[in-house]
Amino acid sequence: MRTKYIDNLKGILICLVVWAHFIELILPRGKWLYTAVYFFHMPAFIFCTGYFSSFSFKKILSGLVVPYVILQLVFIFFENLFFDAGRVFQFYTPHWLLWYVFAVMVWRLLIPVFNRKNESVKKSL
Fold first, then answer.
1. Are 108 and 60 in contact (CB under 8 A)?
2. Contacts of 67 by beta carbon, 8 Å cutoff, 6+ apart
3. How does pLDDT run across 103-116, given as a tens digit for each residue?
């Protein structure tokens, strides 16, 4: 179920990402502003992601693992082709922007572990 408030929050957070990257590029002395934006918008993104996450191995595989592997290969291919970087494919070392996709993948895979832990804590109370 979608809520307009959460959709608006995510839209604002996305705009802040673009704005912070813009600040980073054009304002060499704007590091404090960039840091201030990242100080709250990344935790807010992580909270939203976690709050609306659910465990479905099929969705994790098709929605996160497959795109991650494809984009990781594409980034490494182009970096090696144009910049002669000599990088090799590593699943566990996300390239550039893919750190968030990798983190969400790991967090969602951990949901059953935390649910089991949560259930055992509730039983002991």
1. yes
2. 101
3. 999 999 988 888 87
